[in-house]
Amino acid sequence: MKATVLIRPKEGILDPQGEAVGEALRTLGYAVTSARVGRLVDVDLEVDDPAEAEEALAAMSRDLLANPMIESFTIEIEDGA
Amino acid sequence: MKATVLIRPKEGILDPQGEAVGEALRTLGYAVTSARVGRLVDVDLEVDDPAEAEEALAAMSRDLLANPMIESFTIEIEDGA
């Protein structure tokens, strides 16, 4: 089962990389108010049950993928369709 | 208008960070076949028309956010809902 974990700096946490990207985009002439930079991890899991996969991915995110002190994560399970 | 650009290493492009994450997850006992690591950028745009926003975001991605040689990008426009 394929899934994606989206990891973002929590609201209120300083994001200097996002600020630099926003500033660079404005310099290039784009009407950007703000930009925040995060990570994504595409994971291929040997699990067939979506609920079980989501639980495993939440555990992985807490254990390794995200830093829960400063980052939030969301999990998107890919439909078999 | 809020939108997110998702940037991933193209298929066939080596992703050592993803390989390291996959290996670490397997070491922790998770049944992970593969992992690929990418970036995401949340952008707040001063544009009201979704089509215009998507066009601007594609241009930003080509200009600055992604490296089209080795990365692909997808754009998700947030509904006002």
- The number of helical segments of chain A is 2
Q: How would a textbook summarize the main sheet of chain A?
A: 3 strands, antiparallel
- Mean pLDDT across all amino acids of chain A: 95
What Rg of chain A is obtained from the alpha carbons, in whole angstroms?
A: 16 Å
Q: State the strand order across the main sheet of chain A.
A: 2-1-3
Order of helices and strands of chain A: EHEHE
DSSP strand count of chain A: 3
Shape field of chain A: elongated
Low-pLDDT segments of chain A: none
As an assembly, this protein is homodimer
- The portion of residues forming beta strands of chain A comes to 35-45%
Largest interface: A-B, 32 and 32 residues
**Structural class by secondary-structure content of chain A:** alpha+beta
- Ends of chain A: how far apart? 12 Å
How helical, in percent, are the residues of chain A?
Answer: 25-40%
How would you summarize what this structure contains?
Two copies of one chain form a homodimer. Chain A is α+β, with helices and mostly antiparallel strands.
